[in-house]
Specification:
The protein is 0% helix and 51% strand. By secondary structure, it is mainly β.
């Protein structure tokens, strides 16, 4: 059974940092694109934050470029999101996700339960 579990969320002040982790199990970790997305309070739509493909290619939302870094450890089967210089608008529930097919980051089909990030001003 494919499973993703996020951790590392918390409450920080503006300018602070957090490192999120996503532990994966139940599939060949290294061959699928992975990503992070978030859902702000009161908003139904989830926003794409970052992706990392199986070859290490990364993409970022404009709102987080230069502040966030996505990475992964294939041996540990863990995805990371280093978040620096956090802003109140970064507040939300952060989810990790896995692509639905091998190769490319077009569609995603597996999500974790999420971890809460709160940034106070």
């Amino acid at each position: 059974q494919v499973r993703l579990v996020e951790s590392g969320g918390g409450s920080v002040e503006t300018g602070g940092s957090l490192r999120l982790s996503c532990a994966a199990s139940g599939y060949n970790f290294s061959i699928y694109c992975l990503g992070w997305l978030r859902q702000a309070p009161g908003k139904g739509r989830r926003e794409k934050v970052a992706t990392i493909d199986n070859d290490g290619t990364t993409t970022y939302a404009d709102s987080v470029k230069g502040r966030f870094a996505i990475s992964k450890d294939n041996d540990q089967k863990t995805l990371y999101l280093q978040m620096n210089n956090l802003k109140p608008e970064d507040t939300g529930i952060y989810y990790c996700e896995r692509a639905s097919q091998i190769g490319g980051c077009r569609t995603f089909a597996v999500w974790g339960p999420g971890t809460q990030v709160t940034v106070s001003s």
